[in-house]
Amino acid sequence: xxxxxxxxxxxxxxxxxxxxxxxxxxxxxxxxxxxxxxxxxxxxxxxxxxxxxxxxxxxxxxxxxxxxxxxxxxxxxxxxxxxxxxxxxxxxxxxxxxxxxxxxxxxxxxxxxxxxxxxxxxxxxxxxxxxxxxxxxxxxxxxxxxxxxxxxxxxxxxxxxxxxxxxxxxxxxxxxxxxxxxxxxxxxxxxxxxxxxxxxxxxxxxxxxxxxxxxxxxxxxxxxxxxxxxxxxxxxxxxxxxxxxxxxxxxxxxxxxxxxxxxxxxxxxxxxxxxxxxxxxxxxxxxxxxxxxxxxxxxxxxxxxxxxxxxxxxxxxxxxxxxxxxxxxxxxxxxxxxxxxxxxxxxxxxxxxxxxxxxxxxxxxxxxxxxxxxxxxxxxxxxxxxxxxxxxxxxxxxxxxxxxxxxxxxxxxxxxxxxxx
Amino acid sequence: xxxxxxxxxxxxxxxxxxxxxxxxxxxxxxxxxxxxxxxxxxxxxxxxxxxxxxxxxxxxxxxxxxxxxxxxxxxxxxxxxxxxxxxxxxxxxxxxxxxxxxxxxxxxxxxxxxxxxxxxxxxxxxxxxxxxxxxxxxxxxxxxxxxxxxxxxxxxxxxxx
Lengths: 421, 161
Description:
The complex is a heterodimer. Chain A is an alpha/beta fold.
């Protein structure tokens, strides 16, 4: 029996010829990641370890991004703890404010994640790097500590669901709509413990930023990882951003899948997830008006340059609805700079939006856009759980940058065609 | 190894944001996190729960973020075990790693009610509902995992080896 793409990567990192679903293995790690929320807990755990040193100072990435620039004294103490740990162990890839970005946008852009890698990160959206053909998955702080010390982690080899993509997306429909559609179809535990392997001729029409968005939200279907085949576009991205060699794996023709799901990209429409689960999906235009109080465009899901360009096209020459707060957050300094060069930031500010330095802030209700009781927000982030962005009776509607920007103009959940676009 | 206590019952997809809201993640102190455990799904949970009590939930318990603060807050609040139909995978790993015993048992998860008195034997995986008299067979922990939990988590377990 053949192996899936994920299984091949895991086998190679465990020093095995082959693995099968359910097998417990110990794999070598190419990168261990943590942020300002999860790293302090891991550092505290490492302090308790007899082996209190890191396995490889070049293969650890520490990215304070959640409550950074420090939102309060306690957050400042957490960041200080991470900064001191990075200095003590001479960690190569520690990203201070000014160099930083949201981790899952920053690491691929910095060339630290490439095809064929096995990556663990103490952040659930670590699955993002599957867009490049890597195996990457979220873990907790204790696993991060053990990973930093030993360079290894144990895994149960996952089975997989194959998503066979065909066709091409319509204008204004993007990777976000693809993944929301999939989560709506299979549910928030539809891929529990499994790999989500994307394949088919439709993949080639998806931009890298679409793929990052899709892989990023695999966790929202319960998935262990999401992964894309390596094609010319992915190769070009890695050659542009990374000096590292990469290894391409592809699924065996006789790989076994729990399920194969066909998705015709040309049939997808602008999609929104209603509160309070990402699986509560609806096609924009099929429900009554929902008036909103805030729009957030950003996050590890949708704060990349394609996302900002899309929002700017819609906001250009228009103005956000009076009384609405629109917060736009480029995911990294590099993306921010690119957006300035292209005039996107000017477009946003002229349209009445506020633009922030990179931060996860509002996505998890940290700061920079907390919702009051009863307020509604259209957000390009990844979770709409109860209280995620503020008051427990506030509401989050997950959407693409196109829907978020169109909604910013009308003040209710809308799509670009509602503006004649 | 055994757990015994009163049941606090929850439904499907209890996510890490309601277990420990991110507004409290500027702390990593277990005692501080315990004060806000389950706050956004049951604001009175912390005042009602007693040491040894057990959480029972339906499917996909602990979905969402990788914050280890979620199982840490549950353990520090005094909860001795979590039983669910299924767990989200990162939460499962984190719980074992910090020494919070958790068991998947769909039948028990469906039938056990809020307020029932139950006991769990980790050697056999047997869950007994003392209120109804009914027993269920959950998965038993293999010896290494019992040792890991007894050691208080993965780090102590590695140190002890």
